[in-house]
Amino acid sequence: MILTPIVACVAFASAPLQERRVPIEVRFVAGRNVYIEPGRDAGLRAGDRIVLEIAAGNTIRGRIESVSKTQARAVVDEARDVLVASVRGYAVLGNRDEEQDEDRPEAPPWKREAAPGDPNAPLLRLGKVTRSSDRPAEWSGRVYGRADVFKNLRGAREQSNWLRSGFDVTGKNAFGNGGALRADAEFAMRGFESRFSNNSSSTRTRIDRLEYSWGHNRESSFGYTLGRFLMRQIPEFGVLDGGEFVQAIDTQSSVGAAIGFLPQPLADRATGDDFAAHVSWSRVFGDEERARLRVGLQKTWHHGDADRDLVLSSFAWRPSDSTSLQATLWLDWYDSSERVRPSGIDLTELQVHLSHRFDDAGGVSLYASQLHWPDILRMEFDEVPADVILNEERRNAGASTWHALSKNVWLDLRADWWSDRRDDGISADVRFRFRDLFVERGDVSIGAYHRTGSFLAGPGLRMDWFQRIDLGSLRMGYDLVRYDFDDKRGTLTEHTVRLDADLDLGSRTALGLSLDHRFGNWSRAISGGIFVQHRF
Q1: Residue 457 · residue 449 · CB < 8 Å
Q2: Which of 328, 448, 264 is CA-nearest to residue 85?
Q3: What residue spans of 70-206 are helical by DSSP H?
Q4: Which residues share a beta bridge with 338?
Q5: Which residues does 223 contact at the CB level (< 8 Å), separation at least 6?
Q6: Which of 79, 124, 218, 219 has its CA 20 to 30 A from that of 388?
Q7: Whether pLDDT at 506 is above 90
Q8: What would the DSSP string read from start to end of 394-433?
Q9: Residue ranges of domains in the chain
């Protein structure tokens, strides 16, 4: 039944939309905020749609919110643990020329005759710049709704239903002083049905952003943000309920301070338990700003008791347009009052990422990370045992490459290694992509992979067909996995068939449809979803 809207939309497609896709790569993730490369130089702009390809053929979708010369910040539909640095995908640029021609009114004929003027006067002179506070208020944003259903076709035949709706609105010069107001909120409803248990339902309302910012531009060397927001100077510190103040020292460096409460990174965004104070410093190097160094200090209190003393430093360097290096480290300082750890400085987390692009012929990416559990009172997760805080160390490293074997054939390779105190493992992927070769305006890909986890290991096969149509794109995929568990559960063999449609119903409205069917020796289930979004 969910295919009916897809067929109908394809049948009534009338206005050709020649989309253009630009490869992108994730550099840093903060909740639903994803920082990607490239940026404006590659044609990306705010509002463009992105698709990120994660493990086992799954994708995460989002929209670009802001763009700089070499990077962009996007907001994805949902935060996922598998969305990390080095994940690749593409941005959909659409037909910029057609969009501009539609909105641009026809210029009236020029009627004035040119005055003789002064032949010795300069051809160009400085024009009057309109300050942001003198411009009319401008509102933009999106409203969306999403419905998903999951049905287990075996056993108790459980069914889960999700309904989400929300908005993300920004008002520039909303109060006439040149500032910007932003509100991002979501309402969600979940229902559960089962043959052998009581049905249940729950609702929640979450406010992700409610902020007002001023400055941070050429008109003022000072800027501030108040409310609930993602911190500007050091976004790795996360979301803050409070205020942040940034002062530019010169054209290349700035200092900042922030104070407020840290909301819990959970569904309800509860706040009030953890108070934090921050100071930060940021500097870019060179006329082209190819290098940036940021340092931040964080002090937190949990229910009034001193908790975390954290130093965070991040360095990004682009020696050329095709090469980039980024490294971020978290250092925790512990004193004699800690619950578990001894006094001293500990490297809690380290992330290093290096990538190089060979023009349009491919590229290579390397990454490495290390993670220790911090000894803190703040409850971001269930209570962590003392031996895990003292002894657990998670390490990850990997490499990926993509290369054009010919005009229409691409090869993707990826290998990942992980280890903890109990085990280690290696995962590998190989995939061939055939673009506009077997089908016109379409891609066909086939790949194989092997996964090794803490409790299972085994191979998988993946096939995908991606078709560009006048309204957007269609995608059909098939996955086969065979995982061996390290306990008495034996072997899991599972097939998955996926159907997806991403449709642009005009330049501002998008419709997404999905249908999955999973079946195998342990499971048989079906899931479907619909996503509607309108931008203004």
Answers
A1: no
A2: 328
A3: 96-103
A4: none
A5: 213, 214, 215, 216, 217, 232, 245, 246
A6: 79
A7: no
A8: EEEEEEEEEEESSSSEEEEEEEEEEE-SS-EEEEEEEEEE
A9: 18-97, 215-404
pLDDT in tens, 276-310: 999 999 999 988 888 999 999 999 999 999 999 99
Q: What stretches of 40-103 show up as alpha helix (H) in DSSP? A: 96-103
Which residue matches tokens 């100071």? 279
CA distance 477 to 462: 7
- Residue of 483, 471, 467, 416 lying closest to 13 (CA atoms): 471
Task: For residues 474 and 491, give the distance between their C-alpha atoms in angstroms, rounded to a whole number.
Answer: 33
Q: What is the CA radius of gyration of the chain?
A: 26
Measure the CA–CA gap between 373 and 330, rounded to whole angstroms: 11
Q: Where are the beta strands (DSSP E) in 156-238?
A: 159-172, 180-193, 200-214, 222-230
In this model, does residue 242 exceed pLDDT 50? Answer: yes
CB atoms closer than 10 angstroms to residue 99: 12
Distance of CA 184 to the CA centre of its chain: 16
Task: Provide the strand spans (E) within 94-133.
Answer: none
**Which of 179, 189, 278 lies closest to 219, judged by CA?**
179
Residues 6+ apart with CB under 8 A from 53: 59, 87, 88, 89
Residue with token string 């005759």: 113
What type of residue sits at position 275? F
Tokens standing for residue 123: 């051809």
Supply 475's token pair: 């995608």
The sign one gets for the Cα dihedral 430, 474, 536, 104 is: positive
- Please provide the CATH number assigned to the domain covering 18-97: 2.40.10.170
CA 147, CA 169: separation in Å to the nearest integer?
Answer: 21
Helix (H, G, I), strand (E, B) or coil at 448: strand
Instruction: Please tell me the distance from the alpha carbon of residue 415 to that of residue 400, in angstroms, as a whole number.
Output: 6
Structure tokens at 310: 């954290």
Nearest to 385 by CA among 422, 454, 339, 342: 339
pTM of the predicted model as reported, rounded to 2 decimal places: 0.80
Distance CA 139, CA 495 (A): 46
- How far apart are alpha carbons 165 and 160 in whole angstroms? 17
Whole-angstrom distance, CA of residue 349 vs CA of residue 263 = 21
Burial of 486 (0-12, 13-18, 19+ CB in 10 A): exposed
Provide the pLDDT for residue 508.
Answer: 85
- Number of helices (H), then strands (E), in the chain: 3, 28
Nearest CA to 459 out of 488, 491, 434 is that of 491
- E-assigned strands of 173-303? 180-193, 200-214, 222-230, 239-248, 253-261, 274-285, 291-302
Alpha-helical regions (H) of 310-448: 386-391
**What band does 10 get if pLDDT is binned at 50, 70 and 90?**
very low
**Residues forming beta bridges with residue 253, ordered by sequence position:** 283
